[in-house]
Amino acid sequence: NPAPRGPRASGGHHDLVQRSLVLFSVGVVLALVLNLLQIQRNVTLFPDEVIATIFSSAWWVPPCCGTAAAVVGLLYPCIDSHLGEPHKFKREWASVMRCIAVFVGINHASAKLDFANNVQLSLTLAALSLGLWWTFDRSRSGLGLGITIAFLATLITQFLVYNGVYQYTSPDFLYIRSWLPCIFFSGGVTVGNIGRQLAMGVPEKPHSD
Prior knowledge:
Layout: H1 8-40, E1 44-45, H2 48-51, H3 61-83, H4 93-112, H5 118-136, H6 140-162, E2 167-168, H7 180-200
Antiparallel strand pairs: 1-2
Helix pairs in contact: 1-3, 1-4, 1-7, 3-6, 3-7, 4-5, 4-7, 5-7, 6-7
């Protein structure tokens, strides 16, 4: 007799672990790329002993970003399911890849564009971030989660800078740059779309007894 197949729950758990690992990896890679952009512009400064670590950044930054990406990427489809509003707008990998490219472009703009003052830069990045949401998401859950992520991530960053873990050059919003919440918002939307796409997975085959 053939061995009985495991319960669907174990398959769901395996899928959850796979999605978590993919999202963690995406978060780590994005953290390294974006940190490189910011350091090139000398936007962030780490203490000398931290600079000596790998990738010219604090060792804990990529794992923290990876963990955050996994949480956010799993949270988006979960919230969609809870609200009973499945996200169907532009659901294909090509759109997700374009979203990632735009997100990296927004970060590149934050590091490279020169404005008369930080308010103009912040307003420009805010418009770009909302444009990213409108172009690739357009869901109420995506907007709400993006704003929540931006708020919480900004608070955590303020706390870290206040405690001297690292610092921003020329801070204009308490201890950080005023455009940082825009980056967190667009990052949340981007990772959320990756998580939603991964959650689609392979269509389930019809079960036959």
